[in-house]
Write a structure and sequence with these properties.
heterodimer; A: 117 residues; mainly beta; 7-stranded mixed β-sheet; 4-stranded antiparallel β-sheet; 0% helix; 52% strand; globular; B: 108 residues
Amino acid sequence: QVQLQESGPGLVKPSETLSLTCTVSGDSIRSYYWTWIRQPAGKGLECIGRIYSSGSTNYSPSLNSRVTMSVDTSKNQFSLRLSSVTAADTAVYYCARLGRSGHFDYWGQGTLVTVSA
Amino acid sequence: DIQMTQSPSTLSASVGDRVTITCRASQSISNWLAWYQQKPGKAPKLLIYKASSLESGVPSRFSGSGSGTEFTLTISGLHPDDFATYYCQQYNVYSEWTFGQGTRVEIK
């Protein structure tokens, strides 16, 4: 069974960089795309972007200038960095696997990141 | 950008009811559509992919249909465990993924 687990600071100061890591177990990180999705409290879901095991990425146009994703196949992990954060970036951040038909079939439990001084 | 619009935003129903949620895309997405169920404090759970394919382990009372721009999720016989928020999600050839705004199914 594929399992994903997000980790990283739960509190980030405005203008700083949010950094999260997702650890994948139960399957190799190779041969799939892996994604980050966020959800502000009481609101809908927003896909931030995806990364392949080769390091190839696609980012949401609205976040493209602030997002960097990376992958470490030796650790079966992938990471998210979001720079210049504001209160609007406060959300639950999920990592998820992108299935073959463009759907998200496995999800982490989510981690709340609050942007506040 | 492709916009996804779900209706209704909230739906009140009783156990045993047949429930239908609609999702419309602002342009054709063929059958690249998925449906998810989300409960408070939990990650979304995949129910349906490619518009009508049931994810393994999901009860058969859930079904999806549609193609192009209009899609439906049907729950044939609402169970107590089905009261939740449901999201549709599209995928297109530009490597973009967009979710609908969600439909909350609440107890009548």
